[in-house]
Design goal:
six-stranded antiparallel beta sheet
Length: 124
Amino acid sequence: MNNHLSRFDESKEFFTNERCHILEMLDNHNSDKPFSIARARVEPGVTTAWHRLSDINEYYYILSGTGFMEIDEEEGFQVGINDIVTIQANSAQRIQNNGVEDLVFLAICNPPFTDANYEDLENV
């Protein structure tokens, strides 16, 4: 096995209560990594659920599609290919796919994402 290469299996993509599809690309549960990477896919017309990650900074790198990003009470903004969105730890967030194709982005979390740090703000 090559210690310098990670591969992911497209068949392991799953749908979340947040209303998006997730494919974990760099093991979110491997504690020896300083960050985790997942590919998120939001279908056209869908807005993800309001949520926050406690004590985790998150960065979205937009790969394809367009969207409208909302963070806390700040004014929302349009995002598109090659944009990077910085979401500070403990910030309420959601993203809407306002395009005609899937909105696809990498979600990079530091420290690594864990289910324990995820807080659903819609179904409380």
